[in-house]
Amino acid sequence: MLAVAIAVPAVVSAAPKKKAPSIPSCKRLSATSMAKVLGTGPLKLFGRTANLCSWKGKKAGHYDQAVGVDIIPGIPSIYATAEADGMKAAAKNDETFGTLSARHNPWKAAFFVTGTVTDAGLAPCSAKHKLPKFGPPTCSGDPEWTTFNVDSYDSKLMVSVAVAAQHGDVQLSHVIELNEEVLSRKIR
To answer: Which residue from 56, 69, 77, 163 lies 20 to 30 Å from 38 (Cα-Cα)?
Structure first.
């Protein structure tokens, strides 16, 4: 009886264990490397919920820049839902939606949504008006506020990068590059 009890654990422990894919922690991403790719001012981590991290950048005389990175397991159905939501949001908010699946590796699929808010239709800024920390414009005379969202996935990860900044401070191509570098684990 004792020989059987000892042999069973040996067989069980010899079975191969499935290892869950490693998901990089967003808080460990290099703020310096991300700022370099995006062309923003220095980034400082100011919030984290699960594996969604937020950074803030400053550029004198401009709105502060906001950067968010979310990293989750690469599940095609979650990506498809995010893509459908992105299409709907772009149509509703008069934003631009596009796909990148044929343009870049390492992703299996990727899409972007961009939008710009102008001061059109707003009352003129008063003489005492100060530029708010973040956009969008609050009065006519404030700069435009642009948002970029790039989502991608491969067989292991789904990465969402969102950037909001004063128009011209960040370009879509930079946000695409940052997404690609996070997905391929080049930025750590």
So the answer is: 77
